[in-house]
Amino acid sequence: MLPHDMGRLFEQASARGRTTTVHLDRPFDIAPEAGRRHDVTTLAELVRAASGWWVAAGARPGGRVAILKDDHWDVDLLACAAIRAGAVPAKLSPHLSAETASALLKRLEPDVLVTSPRVLGRGVAEGVDLASFARTTVSTAPAPGTVSLDDLRGSTPPAPQRRDDDAPLIITHSSGTTGVPKLVVHSTRTIIGNLARFEALPTPVVGMRRDDVVATASSYAHGRTFSWTAATISAAPAEIVVLTSQDPDRADPLLREHPPTVFEGLPAAFVRFRPLTARLANPFRRVRLFISTYDAVHPPTLRAYLKASGRKHPVWLDGWGQTETGPLTFRLHHRSSVQRRRARAHPAGRPVPLKTRLRVVDPATFHPVRPGETGLVLARTRALCLDYLGETERYAAKKRGRWWNTGDLAIRGRDGSVHLVDREVDCAAEGSCLAAEDTLEERLPHALECVLLARADGPPLPVVVTADGTLSDHAWRHACHGLPEMAEPVALTWDEVPRTGTGKVRRLALLDRLTGSDDTYGTGRWT
């Protein structure tokens, strides 16, 4: 059973006798002395204690509190603790630039900011005092101008606070691939009632089981991990494995010690962990279900993981959606469904049943287009967020009645399936950048990632990410044969590519860095 009260999620799971064991790749920043192994009861005690820290620091019922610390699952524990204290938590990625983080903190006007010395230090290096944007700033370790978390330990926890299902529950932010992220406000009804509750259903094949070992390698400042936390703690699998690093050599020992049966990761994590699939005793040998969200995962990566599983019929669940809506479509892949083939667009599957309706319309007239034609995707879902904090007009501009403008271009098949073309802001004059990236990665097996950057004044610029930042002329000539016209490729290493906290390429920033301009072929009206 999924509780509606996220402030008491862990307490209620403990009261029901849940026996899930949690394994961390490093201790929580908010409880370093507690080690890397926890059970539901110790997590419930930690959330309860943290709610007292929030109150002692000055969090008020209905007030906003910001969490901007090193990436770990304790971000979600702090969010649950803030909700228990009656406050509205806002989760911010530690990968944001100081300038961007300060812009979001100005909108939030938080009572309390919880941060860490590393984040504060990066802000100072960029000329920004992040501690100045809240009435009280708490640091997980001593730092100038802050209250140390150790000084708040032992504070009396408040009685759990309840709120209306349609009141703001949590604030997260969009990925920020095209500029300053939007602050996305969700309620209990939208993110728990219509997202987490749906995920927690005992669905055949993709539902969690009591004997599962569920591993995640995510961005814990994202809204996805909040709903994941609700669904996973309620489903009570045998074990949970939490990874905070995308370094395969750091992840490998924990995954080998607790080989997962369900593995969810950022697309970037799947790319970085892929070398592990080729090891003799690879840690994915027991996985029955892979789950990817946030961004497209290209076919070669899917094949590598499905092949690595020792299960007879492993499945890959691929979801497309947005921070504002949660998943909109899903697709189940198996070994035979990801064989090499050319396509006009990147297949995204079908609308989530009982939850989502989609329309594909002409971007100029908003009239429906015929199946097989490219158009702008409108979505209708009860999980739509309440607003953009501080940007209500921007939010209203993306709504057409009960329909939400996703800003994505897609093709709707006659069977109802959806094939993504590109973000409208990232689209090219001819063809699909996403589909071309699929093909390039098929033909360049040594590439970690291929990115096609559409430009306003010329053919798209291909960027090929390799381990050493090199690409041979022969390999490129083979890879681009038969594809639409492209500029000469640029080869980069992984760390040379600007990314969001979820590992998405910041395409406009990369385009500007390589060409001196971020002008794209698309209009960007619906970012």
Automatic annotation (TrEMBL):
Q: State if Ligase is listed as a keyword.
A: yes
Per its record, what are the GO molecular function terms?
ligase activity
Give the domain of life: Bacteria
Q: Which InterPro entries match?
A: AMP-binding_CS, AMP-dep_synth/lig_dom, ANL_N_sf, ATP-dep_AMP-bd_enzyme
SUPFAM superfamilies in UniProt: Acetyl-CoA synthetase-like
Any idea which UniProt keywords this protein has?
A: Ligase
Q: Which Pfam families match?
A: AMP-binding
The region called Disordered is annotated at: 142-167
Which residue numbers delimit the AMP-dependent synthetase/ligase domain? 33-388
Q: Which PROSITE patterns match?
A: AMP_BINDING
* Protein name per Swiss-Prot or TrEMBL: Acyl-coenzyme A synthetase/AMP-(Fatty) acid ligase
Organism the protein comes from: Saccharopolyspora flava
